[in-house]
Amino acid sequence: MTSFRQTLMSFFSNLRRAFGGQEASDGRLQFRSQPPMPEFDDDAPLPGTLLTEAESLRATEWLRLSLTKFGYPVSAFVPGHFAAYARIYHPFVDPGSRTLGDPERHTWKTVVGRQLPETPHDAADIAMRGAPTGQAPTGCAPRHLVEALAAALATQTTTPKDCCFAVWEGFGDLQFSPRHRPTLRLPQRAYHVFAGELARVAEASGYSTISFSYRSPNLWWPADHAWCVATEIDHAWTYVAGSRACVDSLLSDARLEAAETSADAAW
After folding, report:
1. How far is the C-alpha of 91 from the C-alpha of 236, rounded, in Å?
2. CB atoms within 10 A of CB 59
3. Element spanning 259, H or E
4. Of 5, 26, 79, 180, which has the fewest CB atoms closer than 10 Å, so is most exposed?
């Protein structure tokens, strides 16, 4: 019969292998010191992206001056001077297919019918609890939607290689240098700001440290201010403000479930 001492020694031997310890000649465990934490290169692009920290607040000044309210109306989230506005719905995702390469998605019209909600409160409730087929992601636009938007918006700016991307400071899975602090402060929100090419916005895991996840920017715009995209952290939809031609192109894009709205609308 195995003695208690043998059982105990076997337990500690397994513990040593599990945690990288070394057994001394007298049987005592000696654990190696932990490897040092990796150092960040403050000048390097974010891991998983090719976006770098914005060097100046100058690129954000127009938003700071435009977005002076919070909550309502639409112009609290995108500047109110644009000619046209669109609301892009985030599709509902079947929870049973989230881990698959191509998750099953459902449009808002499929879930709620032709009568879409009239207020953002009703829409938020539907996004969270209104569909047995799952939830519509809130605060983050899905990667496939971001890819479609980026492709469409690239033709609506003269500066597709010079864009800014702002991410809300409060997400727990963000990846950025420890010295990087929120630089764009708007009513009730603060954002980390990055710069890069529009084509890179949907690459890798976005701003998430989780390799199999994706986190979109919450605000993005080109240097020529031809349009502005906003995904508020409490919304299951994304606003796009731009020229009449820009918004018309989104409303007719089969990849997007879009509805026209206005700067003064509740949502």
Report:
1. 8
2. 20
3. strand 258-261
4. 26
Q: Are residues 238 and 186 in contact, defined by beta-carbon separation less than 8 angstroms? A: no
> Distance between CA atoms of 46 and 12, rounded to whole angstroms?
41
Instruction: Please report the pLDDT score of residue 95 as a whole number.
Output: 67
**Chain mean pLDDT for the chain:** 80
The model's confidence at residue 40, banded by pLDDT at 50, 70 and 90, is very low
Amino acid identity at 133: T
At residue 145, the 3 state secondary structure works out as helix
Sequence ranges of the domains in the chain: 1-35, 52-90+137-261
Contact yes or no for 193/60 (Cβ under 8 A): yes
Q: How far apart are CA 134 and CA 92, in angstroms?
A: 6
Q: What is the mean pLDDT of residues 175-197?
A: 80
